[in-house]
Task: inverse folding
């Protein structure tokens, strides 16, 4: 009798080949070069109903705040990995960054995705203080 590990390996390999072959098969094409979609049954491919799409508005304040917080998070993780920050200090700094991120999302949510200039300046000041704390604690 084969070992359990060999049996599991063989079964996994066989299933992955079968599934991979099924997904790798190319769709059948008609003479016109278009993929067949139930044409033999008289069906036509479904078409998307025309709808008015809302355009995404670019929110530079929120994007900038989140980018700066992401940079701060990367710095914290890097300094912790290089043993410049203790675990407790890194946890405290990550909590501060999370708090700033939460406030940014809450303000943006109440103002339809935008952050007012006054709040943006306060958030930027908090991020600068967070950056100073990262340098001070490392």
Result:
């Amino acid at each position: 009798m084969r070992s359990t590990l060999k049996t599991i390996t063989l079964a996994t390999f066989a299933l992955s080949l079968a599934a991979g072959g099924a997904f790798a098969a190319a769709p059948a094409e008609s003479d016109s070069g278009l993929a067949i979609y139930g044409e033999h049954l008289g069906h036509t491919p479904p078409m998307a109903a025309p709808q008015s799409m809302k355009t995404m508005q670019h929110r530079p304040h929120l994007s900038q705040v989140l980018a700066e917080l992401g940079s701060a998070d990367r710095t914290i993780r890097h300094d912790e990995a290089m043993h410049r920050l203790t675990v407790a200090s890194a946890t405290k700094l990550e909590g501060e960054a999370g708090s700033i991120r939460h406030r940014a999302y809450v303000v943006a949510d109440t103002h339809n995705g935008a952050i007012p200039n006054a709040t943006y300046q306060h958030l930027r000041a908090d991020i600068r203080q967070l950056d100073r704390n990262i340098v001070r604690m490392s």
The chain has a mean pLDDT of 80. The longest helix spans residues 87-110. Helices lie at 4-24, 60-81, 87-110, 117-137.
